Amino acid sequence: MQHLMVSIVLMLTLGQGDSSPETPKAKLVEPPVSITVESTLPSARGMIRQFAFDGDPATLFVSDEPIRESDHFTMSFDRPVALKSVAVVTGRPDSSGALGSGTLEVSEDGKAFCEVAKFASGEAHAKGNPHEICAIRVKSEKSLEIPLIIREFTIESEPSLVPFKYPVEIQTDVSDAPEMKEWLEKVARLCERNYRMINEELKTEGYTPAREINMTLKKDYRGVAAAGGTRITGSAKFFKEHPDDVGAMIHETTHVVQHYRSRNNPGWLVEGVADYVRFFKFEPGKIGPINTARAHYNSSYRVTAAFLAYLTEKYDKEIVLKLNKLMREGNYKEDAFKEYTGKTVQELDEEWRSVLSEGAKEADD
Ligand SMILES: [Zn+2]
């Protein structure tokens, strides 16, 4: 490994944003913007891309291969932002592996990029920008003998960008169904983008979720998809026929985050929590009709998800968070429902079912 001892700081200055003028009365605070981070270079084990924007300069993205000409590392934003400043630091904390040549580029449309600074090595700082941008990338100009090492992007923008509080990378495997490569890559990035949301819904103190997940499509897989540990396996046939059913992979990613080990956890509740995250947080409104004659709290999947949503609404905004904590720590017992709501799960079931059938009657009228 070639060690570059010189650390060069790039100062990159961009003009002031032309975002709409601020009116003191009606200043809209736009929600932060999510990011997808991609690279032409594969990540070295444990050195994932999202480490480049996790607010922690101690964690690094390191590529598994040396940099080739035109390789890039790109952060794409869900919506355009007015850039106030950007700083990029490459190389390890001891300055070794800093990028010796390359460019820092921005894009207004995510397709055409324009250079805003040349990289020598080390840091980059910037201020202002004449246009809203939706992507920033580090691009190599020539092949180098070193891997690409990015310590941290620091970006100030309006609206702000969401840093990777729970960094994760999903490796895909479509060797069984190469024609599904583009679809699975898209879904992997989608699940990466929603990893923060899933972890916020299911957070417990001291728990660090998996940082590397494998997502595979198998042509002979029966069923839709399943998760075990940090591996997600899906049916190539099913997703070829149902390409819009990306929520199924959010459900499986939720199982990876749940990380339950206890045999005391009832299956209906494990699946209910995963479908609660899917249907009430990821794709609200898509749950479809519930059969009121047959629905019970323990009917599992989306029916239990609807039951949990009812309890969240009527009794305790944090009930899913609390049930998740019990299950993750191996302390689940049915009495928990009574503790959190004052009623047994059977009493809650009766009540929920009568509310459901009233709702169904009204819909019929
Ligand atoms: Zn499941």
- In CATH, what is the class of the largest domain? Mainly Alpha
Shape: elongated
Question: What gyration radius follows from the Cα positions, in whole Å?
Answer: 24 Å
Judged by helices, strands and strand pairing, the structural class is alpha+beta
Question: Total strand count, please?
Answer: 13
CATH superfamily of the largest domain: Neutral Protease Domain 2
Name of the CATH architecture of the largest domain: Orthogonal Bundle
Helical fraction equals: 25-40%
Order of helices and strands: EEEEEEEEEEHHEEEHHHHHHH
Bound molecules: zinc ion
Report on this model:
Helix 4 (247-258) packs across helix 5 and helix 5 (267-282) packs across helix 6 (301-314). It is built from 9 helices and 13 strands. It has helices at residues 181-193, 195-201, 236-241, 247-258, 267-282, 301-314, 319-328, 335-341, 345-364; strands spanning 10-11, 35-39, 61-66, 72-90, 102-107, 113-119, 124-125, 133-139, 147-158, 169-173, 212-218, 225-228, 231-235. It is an alpha+beta fold and 365 residues long. It is elongated and about 70 Å long. It has 2 domains: 10-17 and 30-158, Jelly Rolls; 169-358, Neutral Protease Domain 2 (Neutral Protease, domain 2), CATH 1.10.390. A hairpin with a 5-residue loop joins strand 5 and strand 6 (113-119). Strands 2, 3, 4, 5, 6, 8 and 9 form a 7-stranded antiparallel beta sheet that branches. It has a 4-stranded mixed beta sheet with strand order 10-11-13-12. Strands 1-7 form a two-stranded parallel sheet. Mean pLDDT is 90; it is low at 1-25. The site of zinc ion (ZN) has 4 residues, from helix 4 and helix 5. Zinc ion binds next to helix 4 and helix 5.
